Amino acid sequence: MSAAPCYAGVDSGSWNTKAALVDAAGRVVATAIVRTGADVRAAAEQVVRDLLERAGVDRSAVTALWTTGFGRHAILDATSSRTELDAHARGALQYVSGPLTVIDIGGQDAKIITVDAEGRRVSHKMNRKCAAGTGSFLEEMALRLDVPIGALPALAQASREEIELGSFCTVFTGTEVLGLIRQGKRPADLARAAYRSVVKRVLEMERVEGTVVATGGVVAHHHMVVELLEQAIGSRVIVPRYAQEIGAVGVAYAARAAAAA
């Protein structure tokens, strides 16, 4: 059991709500993840309950609770908030020293964040409003291939033929995949093509160089995305601990830093 003070961070994402608890010494005590669903506030309350139970601490031990993510302003008992860009950059910097480039691929968006040697955010790029290049795209492809999303990585590993998916829109790509299935293309090859499409869409956003850190639920659960990123940029891609929860980790550290200031 960790003693007070502790600092909580909640990343209210479009698909999942993540939480992290950092103690006074700067250690990540626990993390938790729940589905966001249609009630952002209820998901945040649930993930905090799960977090405190895993950490073995009472709510009174939490000195500050900071939020990030698309639903951050809906969490009523939050002390403060930070943008996703700030939270993900700060979280990545807990594990990898700058300068670095953070590639974050979430359920509905993807972003590339450049950080200098002092940890300052230099630039960022976000994906288009279309969900191509995100977890939603992979969910749609799994649906078209009639497999659970969790089975997509193993299916793609059996690929023998490279197929290029040409559409930039998730809906149009789904139609394209149906056409390829009618042509007799193997599901394994189409699964790998879906991963290659995600990587292509992300790397179209910005030139990536130097030390690269990949975060988000997609890289946490679909390692082929990391492998294909490495092939495309010609260098290693670092996946830090708590890759999916990195925004929550980052905003928890932000709360701790503010308390120490």
Structure write-up:
By secondary structure, this protein is of the alpha/beta class. The protein has two domains: 6-87 and 244-260, Nucleotidyltransferase, domain 5 (2-Layer Sandwich); 98-239, ATPase, nucleotide binding domain (Nucleotidyltransferase, domain 5). Helix content is 39%, strand content 22%. The protein contains nine helices and ten strands. The chain has helices at residues 40-55, 84-93, 135-144, 152-157, 170-182, 187-203, 217-221, 223-233, 246-260, and strands at residues 6-12, 16-23, 28-35, 62-69, 80-81, 100-105, 110-115, 121-126, 212-215, 237-238. The strands form two sheets. The chain has a five-stranded mixed beta sheet with strand order 3-2-1-4-5. Strands 8-7-6-9-10 form a five-stranded mixed beta sheet. β7 and β8 form a beta hairpin. α3 (135-144) packs parallel to α5, α3 (135-144) runs antiparallel to α6 and α6 (187-203) crosses α8 (223-233). The longest helix is centred in the last third of the chain and has 17 residues, at 187-203. The radius of gyration is 19 Å and the shape is globular. The two termini are 26 Å apart.
Which short descriptors sum up this protein?
5-stranded mixed β-sheet; 2 domains; alpha/beta; Nucleotidyltransferase, domain 5; about 260 residues; single chain
How many DSSP-defined strands? Answer: 10
The CATH first-level class of the largest domain comes to Alpha Beta
Count of distinct structural domains: 2
Assess the beta-strand content as a share of residues.
15-25%
- Gyration radius, rounded: 19 Å
Q: Could you state the CATH homologous superfamily of the largest domain?
A: ATPase, nucleotide binding domain
Going across the biggest sheet, name each strand in turn.
3-2-1-4-5
The biggest beta sheet is recorded as: 5 strands, mixed
Which structural class matches the secondary elements? alpha/beta
CATH architecture title of the largest domain: 2-Layer Sandwich
Tally of contiguous helical segments: 9
CATH T-level fold name of the largest domain: Nucleotidyltransferase, domain 5
Helix content: 25-40%
Question: What's the overall geometry?
Answer: globular
| First and last CA, distance | 26 Å
Poorly predicted parts: none
Mean pLDDT: 91
What letter string, H or E per element, gives the SSE order?
A: EEEHEEHEEEHHHHEHHEH
